[in-house]
Design brief:
Structural class: alpha+beta
Distance between the termini: 19 Å
Strand order of the largest sheet: 5-4-6-7
Radius of gyration: 22 Å
Strand content: 5-15%
Number of strands: 7
Largest sheet: 4 strands, antiparallel
Number of helices: 10
Length: 270
């Protein structure tokens, strides 16, 4: 009988094989002798066909001082969002309870404190760079290319920070996806081509594509087909159901492992 392996959380990674350690994207599989590196033949982008959309975004501009045409766009747009969470953008005003009670310009938001702590830990040099406030951010580059992102300053700042993490870059070829619904210190960030566990309120964002994964996309990654629903259901209801469900293949693997464990115990007892 061959070796058994248990895979954890490989939504969008639908094929893997045993063998010598390969090059390229990999998934971690746990077997009897410990973790084994295995070849990933499909990441979430190829599985969903996101690479076929051919969006032209010059992600190399993130973190650079703006060119004249980019400066003209920013002046006309009025956005001053920065990687610094304490920077107040009058176009994208925070509407948290602290801002409603004390005014958005006081920057008393809890998310700003969390983001500042995260930034101080990951990029202490950026906070001391006087030019950083004038450099192009992730959301500004996306919007310069006609992509609509988020209006929430918390979500915009989180993307600006997460996109600068070394493990995320280069953005032109990254497989990074991030749940923007989570606080930044609990960042559910995946960079290996898989998609993390999806809570019912998750908003999974593909950084390379500057796009939120829709409910049908998430359903496809979970091995389900929204075209065969027996009864009408809203996107919110279906998303809640997905967040509380198992991927059929994972459920089958768990069941197979459970039955194998029972069979092994019975064989040892006899």
């Amino acid at each position: 009988m061959g070796p058994r392996a248990q895979a954890h959380g490989h939504k969008g990674l639908d094929t893997w094989t045993h063998g010598p350690e390969p090059k390229g994207p990999r998934a971690r599989v746990h077997g009897p002798m410990g973790p084994v590196r295995t070849q990933v033949q499909h990441d979430y982008r190829s599985f969903l066909g996101l690479g076929l959309l051919q969006k032209v975004i010059n992600w190399a501009r993130v973190g650079c001082l703006p060119e004249p045409d980019e400066m003209n766009f920013l002046l006309a747009d009025g956005c001053s969002c920065s990687i610094d969470p304490m920077q107040i953008c009058l176009k994208h005003v925070c509407r948290c309870e602290m801002c409603r009670n004390h005014g958005a310009t006081h920057a008393l938001c809890q998310w700003r404190q969390h983001a500042l702590e995260f930034l101080s830990k990951k990029f202490p040099a950026l906070l001391g760079d006087p030019q950083e406030l004038h450099k192009l951010t992730y959301v500004q580059v996306a919007e310069c290319h006609g992509i609509t992102t988020f209006s929430s300053p918390r979500e915009r700042n989180a993307l600006n920070i997460i996109s600068r993490l070394p493990k995320v870059g280069p953005l032109e070829s990254t497989l990074a996806n991030y749940d923007v619904s989570q606080a930044i210190y609990r960042a559910n960030l995946k960079v290996d081509g898989s998609v993390g566990t999806m809570p019912t309120g998750a908003v999974i964002y593909s950084l390379r594509d500057a796009e939120v994964l829709t409910v049908p996309m998430m359903a496809k990654l979970m091995g389900r087909d929204v075209t065969n629903l027996a009864a009408p259901m809203s996107a919110v209801q279906y998303k809640r159901m997905l967040g509380m469900s198992f991927h059929p293949a994972c459920a089958g693997m768990v069941l197979a492992a459970f039955l194998a464990a029972i069979g092994s115990s019975l064989a040892e007892g006899s």
